[in-house]
Design goal:
Strand order of the largest sheet: 1-2
Order of helices and strands: EEEEHH
Largest sheet: 2 strands, antiparallel
Number of strands: 4
Distance between the termini: 25 Å
Helix content: 10-25%
Structural class: alpha+beta
Number of helices: 2
Length: 68
């Protein structure tokens, strides 16, 4: 989540960062979330709201290295 790029409604954009061989790329997920509901440790939105569910796909990407 990039809190520094907060939108007028208070939400902040969520980015996906991929690092391979020390090369880092950040991709916009085109999703936003309320920073107050963002869990930095789990890298997801807390709760069972529609907002939290829509971001759940992004948090599942974080577990990809575990599956490889």
């Amino acid at each position: 989540m990039k809190r520094t790029k907060a939108l007028p409604n208070g939400n902040a954009p969520i980015y996906l960062r991929i690092t391979i061989d020390s090369e880092r790329v950040e991709l916009a997920t085109k999703r936003n979330a309320n920073p107050e509901k963002w869990n930095n440790v789990a890298q997801k939105v807390l709760g069972n709201t529609d907002e939290a569910r829509s971001v759940s796909l992004i948090s599942s990407v974080n577990s990809l290295p575990d599956r490889i």
